[in-house]
Amino acid sequence: MRKTEKTAETLYTEARRYLQGDGITPSYEKGISYLKQAADLGHARAQYNLGICLHKGTGIPQSYEEAYRYFELAAKQGHPRAYYMLGCYYAFGFLFPPSEETAVHYFRFAAEAGVTDAQYDLGVLLLDGKGTFKSEEEAVRYFKLAADQGNADAQYNLGICYYQGRGVAVSDEEAIRYLELAVRQKQPKAAEALEIVMMAAYRPKR
């Protein structure tokens, strides 16, 4: 490890200690100061976390411009969640006019790296062909990746896909299984959907 890398890692560790109150009195001022020093030395996780603080205005004045800059720096070093946040900036228009096509580019990278939020958001865009080709099968694949890692919205969407036969063979059993998982996490639409699916599944056959 080079001296700069060691220094950046030390600064990042100190930032986390102050931000989390790990054995010391929490201090956003000191935590952000150490975080920025580490980020400016090229520490990817520091760049991403500083971007989050700037995006939310946590311990530092909110600035979408500066947040995007640090997310971009972290993404250039391959940080998966930084790619996801860049996608969010284009998907939801935080800084630029919304561009679903550009969002898909960033979401896909993050999704393949295992970021569950990116897998879910990419699945939503694929399901309706927004910003990319329409593929219900690919949408289901990404929903399943996210759902099996505990993403409640993906569990809900996957349950609906099984119920409606979108991108997958109809299966009331699988629909109920994933909707029940979403209900346990209090996904707001899951309970009503589960009731509808169960009524249809157990309706007496004539």
Describe this structure in words.
The structure is a single chain. This protein has 206 residues and is mainly α. It has eleven helices and no strands. The longest helix has 18 residues, at 3-20. It is elongated, with a radius of gyration of 21 Å.
State the major sheet.
none
CATH uppermost class of the domain at 117-206 = Mainly Alpha
How far apart lie the N and C ends? 72 Å
How is the CATH topology of the domain at 117-206 named? Serine Threonine Protein Phosphatase 5, Tetratricopeptide repeat
Rounded to an integer in angstroms, the radius of gyration calculated over CA atoms is 21 Å
- Helical proportion, percent range: over 70%
| Category from helices, strands and their pairing | mainly alpha
Query: How many strand elements?
Result: 0
Q: Quick one: overall form?
A: elongated
Average pLDDT value? 94
Low-confidence stretches: none
Order of helices and strands: HHHHHHHHHHH
